[in-house]
């Protein structure tokens, strides 16, 4: 009886733990909506403001995975990709478009439409947007390599953190302490925080020089309550501040300048029912 009780307790503890990077397999299907809202303000001799929003939606079928179970090739159907800028709104794909997408290890993607590669500009827009997708890079970032229990907190791998930020255009990152994540007491939400002491951006204005930079990335992933515990929603905010100087033409004295950028991610994912039934059957 004691042995049976111990075994039951061990099984219950294992059942209460959550794998933060569940493996995918060919044939898995999900629907995803993902928005990226970037606001930039630069104060120098004049003030510059820019607001850009990208919205993506698709029904996705996994065609091939890598050895870690991450999607490598996918078919995206009913694709919607909308760019909202001060000069207007654009749809980058026609309504009802279906594409095949191959993910590369460096974060880039190759996209085929009706058997032909789309132009590099479109591939980069899609790659930059899907770099924020929960099922891919974020799951790898948060995963400590083992299941975690409700209420547990752990440190994120610094090398993964730096690479995660680099893929989002934030380079030469130095962390301001420990980047960490925690599974909340209900076992259905993961919150994470990455403090940034210094960083560099590649697209600074001509003549601009950074003298001080600081930032943070915070977010929350809500997990499904089924046995798969796959992400259902993800919200995050990346805030970046740079102080520096801006050299003037003609040898005039450099003027102080400041950049403030915020980038908000909002994603919702629905595991399609036929996949969920298959996954739960395979686990039982």
Characterize the structure shown:
The chain has one domain. 19% of the residues lie in helices and 49% in strands. It has 5 helices and 14 strands. The chain has helices spanning 2-16, 120-130, 134-142, 158-166, 273-283, and strands at 29-43, 47-65, 71-85, 88-91, 97-103, 109-113, 116-117, 153-155, 171-175, 180-183, 189-200, 208-223, 231-246, 255-271. Strands 1, 2, 3, 4, 5, 6, 7, 8, 9, 10, 11, 12, 13 and 14 form a 14-stranded antiparallel sheet that branches. A hairpin with a 7-residue loop joins strand 12 (208-223) and strand 13. The chain starts with a helix and ends with a helix.
Keywords:
single chain, 284 residues, alpha+beta, 5 helices, 19% helix, disordered N terminus, disordered C terminus
Overall mean pLDDT stands at 85
Q: How many strand units?
A: 14
Low-confidence stretches: 1-14, 275-284
Residues in β-strands, percent: over 45%
Number of helices: 5
Shape: globular
In total, the number of domains comes to 1
Largest sheet: 14 strands, antiparallel
Q: How would you classify the helix and strand content by structural class?
A: alpha+beta
In angstroms, what is the radius of gyration?
21 Å
Order of helices and strands: HEEEEEEEHHEHEEEEEEH
For the record, give the distance between the C-alpha atoms at the N and C termini, rounded to a whole number. Answer: 25 Å
Helix content: 10-25%
Topology:
Blueprint: H1 2-16, E1 29-43, E2 47-65, E3 71-85, E4 88-91, E5 97-103, E6 109-113, E7 116-117, H2 120-130, H3 134-142, E8 153-155, H4 158-166, E9 171-175, E10 180-183, E11 189-200, E12 208-223, E13 231-246, E14 255-271, H5 273-283
Antiparallel strand pairs: 1-2, 1-14, 2-3, 3-4, 3-5, 5-6, 6-7, 8-10, 9-11, 10-11, 11-12, 12-13, 13-14
């Amino acid at each position: 009886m004691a042995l049976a009780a111990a075994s039951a307790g061990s099984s219950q503890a294992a059942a209460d733990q959550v794998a933060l990077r569940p493996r995918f397999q060919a044939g898995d299907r999900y629907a995803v909506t993902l928005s990226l809202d970037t606001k930039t303000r630069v104060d120098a001799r004049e003030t510059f403001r820019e607001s850009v929003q990208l919205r993506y939606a698709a029904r996705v079928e996994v065609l091939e995975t890598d050895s870690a179970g991450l999607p490598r090739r996918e078919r995206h159907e009913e694709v919607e990709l909308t760019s909202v800028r001060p000069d207007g709104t654009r749809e980058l794909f026609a309504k009802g478009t279906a594409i095949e997408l191959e993910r590369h290890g460096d974060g880039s993607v190759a996209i085929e439409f009706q058997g032909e590669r789309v132009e590099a500009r479109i591939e980069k827009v899609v790659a930059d947007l899907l770099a924020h997708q929960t099922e891919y890079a974020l799951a790898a970032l948060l995963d400590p390599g083992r299941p975690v229990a409700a209420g547990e907190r752990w440190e994120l791998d610094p090398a993964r953190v730096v690479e995660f930020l680099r893929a989002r255009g934030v380079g030469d990152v130095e962390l301001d302490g420990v980047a960490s994540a925690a599974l909340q007491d209900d076992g259905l939400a993961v919150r994470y925080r990455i403090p940034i002491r210094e960083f560099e951006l590649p697209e600074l204005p001509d003549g601009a020089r950074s003298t001080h930079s600081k930032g943070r990335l915070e977010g929350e992933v809500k997990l499904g309550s089924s046995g798969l515990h796959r992400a259902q929603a993800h919200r995050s905010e990346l805030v970046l501040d740079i102080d520096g100087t801006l050299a003037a033409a003609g040898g005039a004295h450099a003027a102080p300048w400041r950049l403030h950028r915020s980038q908000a991610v909002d994603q919702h994912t629905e595991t399609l029912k036929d996949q969920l039934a298959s996954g739960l059957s395979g686990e039982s």
